[in-house]
Amino acid sequence: MTESHEQTTWGVGPWDGPWPTEDFYDPELLKNGDTRNVLDHFRYWKMEAIIAELDSRRHKFHVAIENWQHDLNIGSIVRTANAFLAAEVHIIGHRRWNRRGAMVTDRYQHVRHHPTVEDFVTWAKEANLPIIAIDNVPRCEQIETFKLPESCVFLFGQEGPGLSQPAIEAAEVVLEITQFGSTRSINASAAAAITMHAWVQQNLF
Ligand SMILES: C[S@@+](CC[C@H](N)C(=O)[O-])C[C@H]1O[C@@H](n2cnc3c(N)ncnc32)[C@H](O)[C@@H]1O
Question: Which of 66, 63, 73 is nearest to 188 (CA)?
Answer without folding.
Answer: 73
